[in-house]
Design goal:
Length: 410
């Protein structure tokens, strides 16, 4: 005997809607400071935003989940002219410091790993060649790196020297026709994908010099670092160099001390601040969109007083670091930015972005831990930029030394 069941209408209220957290419509420039930039700089920003929407948006969370590197983006970024990080090249449209900052912001707003590709390739490796290289090196290495045809990495940090990178111990001994390098480096973006590694090492006189090391060189071993919880869509390497020979023509001629290394790092510090602004922007706009779309207790989350207060706080924090980044970049363009000012920008932007990301993650509830919902990726990636190119503590000590006139470094 067949038992008959009465069919009931399926409750539509249990079906979760799709949340479009990439949608336009959120005012992400509450003071209008970004709207007032030069139109040429704004065009660079729009180019970066278009790149993210066309090339990155749809599948970046899948690369992030799998800890896979979308290597094809290096060439695409080069084709779009976005690997420059403010560096000028003959025959190429100029890119001002403001344009470079806005590009960095928009790339990080899309994804932190993509922004880091530019930070490593253009900000550090290419800048080292352009600041310290010969004319021949700029042509041989700089031009293809700019085009994304040659991968570049920047090897300064060592397993035992992070914040105290000035104490690096990798050695470069002079031999006939070049140098032989021995040492290890860690957290080196692009260090295991083939290409050139700008390696900083001490020569026989103890001076810090820069060397262009071919990653195919005998004795060069690079292991991609596993189990990262941040910037998972770009690979960092642990590098070991055992008797790696570098010919004289691949030694950066204008690198003579750690001051030359620091000159490269100083030029990229504001880029980290702009990246933090980008991450914070993504988290803020995602929180606003979600709060308006998500219904709880019979009304949108956005109708709750406590939610509106938290969104107002996030907007205030975002506006603060936007204004700081713009003002710092204006000083950089005039050649007036000081080291402590750059530290202030990096320190304030990254720690504020952390606060915005944490608030956004909480506002999204359980959906906030899904990488496909943007916020979780940015929440994790901010932890990396909070640390690299000078931890919060190191930036605070640099600022403190400037404030007091007393160094607290060991």
């Amino acid at each position: 005997m067949t038992q008959q069941h009465t069919e009931f209408e399926f409750p539509t209220g249990v079906v979760e809607p799709e949340y479009d957290l990439w949608a336009d419509g959120v005012d992400i420039d509450p003071t209008g400071v970004l709207a007032e930039v030069d139109p040429v700089d704004a065009a660079w920003r729009n180019k970066a935003r278009t790149f993210i929407l066309d090339e990155v948006k749809d599948d970046i969370h899948e690369y992030w989940d799998k800890a896979d590197y979308p290597l094809h983006l290096i060439k695409k970024l080069g084709d779009a002219g976005l690997l420059r990080d403010g560096l000028d090249f003959e025959g190429h449209e100029p890119m001002s410091p403001m344009a470079a900052g806005l590009v960095n912001m928009e790339l990080a707003r899309g994804d932190g790993s993509v922004a880091t590709i530019v930070g490593v390739q253009g900000g550090l490796a290419l800048r080292s060649v352009m600041f310290c290289g010969s004319a021949q090196q700029k042509t041989k290495y700089g031009v293809p790196m700019l085009a994304g045809e040659l991968a570049g990495s920047f090897a300064l940090t060592e397993p035992t020297h992070g914040s105290d990178s000035v104490g690096l111990e990798t050695r470069a001994h002079k031999v006939d026709g070049g140098y032989v390098i021995n040492g290890e480096k860690k957290w080196i973006g692009n260090g295991s994908i083939g290409g050139i590694t700008v390696t900083w090492a001490r020569d026989d006189d103890g001076k810090v010099r820069g060397f262009l090391v071919d990653q195919e060189s005998a004795g060069y071993t690079a292991t991609t670092i596993k189990n990262k919880l941040s910037l998972r869509a770009i690979w960092q390497a642990h590098i070991r160099m055992e008797n790696v020979f570098v010919p004289d023509e691949d030694v950066l001629p204008d690198s003579h001390s750690f001051k030359d290394t620091a000159r490269v790092l100083f030029a990229t510090r504001l880029g980290v601040a702009w990246s933090a602004v980008g991450h914070a922007t993504a988290c803020y706009e995602s929180a606003v969109l979600y709060a308006k779309a998500r219904t709880q207790f019979g009304r949108p989350l956005a109708a709750s007083q406590i939610v509106q207060e938290r969104l107002a706080r996030m907007q205030s924090e975002l506006a603060t670091i936007q204004l700081l980044a713009v003002q710092s970049t204006k000083r950089e363009a005039r050649g007036e930015l000081t080291g402590p000012q750059a530290s202030l920008a990096k320190y304030t932007a990254t720690r504020t972005a952390r606060q915005i990301a944490a608030n956004a993650r909480d506002l999204l509830g359980g959906n906030g831990i899904l990488t496909s919902n943007r916020v979780a990726r940015h929440f994790a990636d901010i932890e990396a930029i909070h640390t690299y190119e000078g931890t919060e503590t190191v930036q605070a000590l640099l600022m403190g030394r400037n404030i007091t006139g007393i160094s607290a470094f060991a």
